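Would you mind giving me a polypeptide sequence along with per-residue structure tokens?
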Amino acid sequence: MFALHHGAAAAAAPAVSLSLILVCATTLSLAQNITLSPATTTTNASLVSAILDPSFAGFGIEPSNLFDFAGGETANALSIGLLQNLADYSGAPPHIRLGGNTGDYALFDASYANFQVGQNPKATSQGTIPADNNVIGPAYFEVLERFPKDTPVTFGLNMAYYDSDYIDQIVRTAQAAVDGMKNVNLYSFEVGNEPDLWLQNKFRNGSWGGKTYMKEFLDRADAVYNQVLKPAGYPATFFEAQATASTIGTTFEIDMLVADGMLNATNGNKYVSLWNQHDYFYFIGVTTSPMTLDDLMDLDNTETQFLYWKQQSAIAIQDTGLPFALREMSSVGPIGMHQVSDTHGAALWTLNFFLYTATLNISSVQMHMTSNSNASAWQPIDLYGQGPHVRPLYYGHAAMAQIIGGGNATTQIGLLDTTPITDTSYTGRIRAYTAYSKGALQSVILINTKPANASSTTKGNFTFTLALGAANADTSVFLSYLTADGSDALDGTTWNGMAYADADGTATQVDDTVVSLRTSSTGDVTIPVRDSQAIVANIGHLLGTVGVLDGEGHNVGDTTTALPTCTASSAPSGTAASCVEPTGAKKKSAAVVRSVHGGGCFAAAAVVAGMALLT
């Protein structure tokens, strides 16, 4: 972040304006560029997703850490505020998967009253960590209820436990979940976590494999449905299958489980609602190569690493007709990596990954969080010598949520071809996506992940020329920035001019500048994107200044970006445009708005010069 001293800024304004324009002209002459022609409607797009669920971009919470994220006897204001922000932006709360390794350690005890996960002093079950090691009680669901209303929750049931009373135990926990979730929405049950690893962690032995897993899964699903779900009016297809770490080279692949009978009826009922798999871009102790922030920001690496999961998702969707969700995902597992997963570069990676997986028609993605992970979107408790705080990657979630909300429950994402790139320094660093609202082009998302450290005084840029077509000729395009001082920045990231308070997640507009470009008579506009930055170019208004509707068409509240929208259609280049307060928008008295013809770096220079003159 930066601030202009009022007196000095006014005095130096002409020099700032000239120098910025000259620097930008030089940069544009040397920088790499590409021209893209996005389809103006989904019917003409070559690759576009299905309509995204507003809860698409969610979180996984490790079960043993729920009290850290939701709070104990006192609610965790930071978690609740951050989740509510995303609900307001997208139109629905982010999907929460309450599952992970520790879900297979816990049993429910109605008499256990503590606001913490307890340890069973009489654990006797199998496993390197026994499958009855932990105890949860009614308070577990009490704190879960603090999350935003109608938060969809996939709840993990303990399948690892298989003592003689295993049916009684899993039914007891399922009943507690059904009874305990009234404010949040019990969306599905995940039965067991990463069963492909159960020989390693000694939950099972002998001939354990996909076929045995399938039988045990359906056995438990049948009991839970008939004893818990059916009496409560839930459907039989309420169970997510697999929850695997990786099915590569195992008997847990989707087509193998289907052949074994996973989708067949059991006692007249089919139980599988979707396929659920897990992945990490990098996992410490498993991935053999070293890891750097540069590796993470090379987006070609992500697509290479994810290729197998891409294939599995296609099998799920096309061959079985069921959705595929990535319920446990992260940049670095199991607990992140300082100066990699907690940087601004990770925020850019997060936004790109959500957009990329959306184009694959993956139905939902949960970024996994533990209390002690540097890859969690926020730190919920005092740890590592720091208090609770928001990490940069949360801003990637915020950007995705506003992109989804911009379509008011009709958003579809398309992928634009950004190859070839002749400047090899940008190979793997450039991505572009489209967002459609009601079938019409609404925005283009431009991502540049070429590393640029905060300490660098000269950062490059990559220039996109967008040919938006005659339908968007002589039209205002508003730019929203996901930015920071550099890719390695641990703080200072902003999205759409907003920052989020470490105390309670409250959004504050820290930069009121609005960059508005004007397309040409043929619908073209040129936009430079600085290295280690992403821009959403939204047609007609600034993203977040139009009320967001939920899936039923109801307004979810105030608009989500406290900025006016510009109504002038033809302001002279570099001059102020007249602005009005849009219906429902929060008023911000200090906003500076510039509408510029021709776009490019000159537009940004004009805006900054205007800031200097007005401050």
